[in-house]
Structure formats: C-alpha cells, structure tokens
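Support reply, case 0932

Customer input (verbatim):
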Amino acid sequence: MKKLIVLTLLISAALTLRGADLTGTWAAAVVLDAGNGTATFTFKQTGEALSGTYSGTLGQAQVTGTVKGDQAEWSFDNEQVGKVAYKGVLDSAGKMKGTVTYGQLGAGTFTAEKKS
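Our regenerated output:
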C-alpha cells in the first residue's frame, strides 16, 4: 500500500511538471564569478517554444528557447558580453533553478520565481 501511494504521488508530480507553462514574468537572482545581479524575464510559451524579453544589468533583449517537461533553456545575444544562455529545471509551478553563461563575464547559477 505504501508503494502505491508513493507511486501515485510521483506520477501526479510528473504530470504536473509535464504540463508546466512558463508564460508570465519571472524574477531571477544570478550569481556569476564576476558578481551577482538580478534579471527579469517575461516569457510566452507556445508548446515547447519559448519567447520573450530580458531586462537587467545588460539592458533589454529578446530571448528565445525551449521547454521540455521540467527543463527549460533560453538565450539572447548582447553586444557587450556575447551570448547569454540559461538552462533551468522547474522545481514547482513557480520556481526554477539552474546554470547560466554570461558570455565574457563567465558562468554561474540562477534561481528564479514566477511573479503572480
């Protein structure tokens, strides 16, 4: 009986994440070798395609990416530092964490939360 309950909970969690929609505004805390900062992303998800905008220390930019299950990847180009790329895992309906590369500024990590 205990195994059945655990299995049911795992299946429920997997189905919830599979149907995740990143559409909305996300506030991200970024930690790089070069320092810390914040970024705001406004996403629109259509199927597995992700598009939207970045706003932060580097100004503003258009972002594109993909979402597959609980995995998300997006990027944008910046004249000052080069390509900026994020790879994240959705922890729950409103939180995400992962790694980031900010071109010449180096690599680091991020945590993000969806604003309501």
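We compared this against your earlier run and they match. Two observations from our side: The longest helix spans residues 2-18. The chain has one domain: 2-114. Please reopen the case if you see a mismatch on your end.
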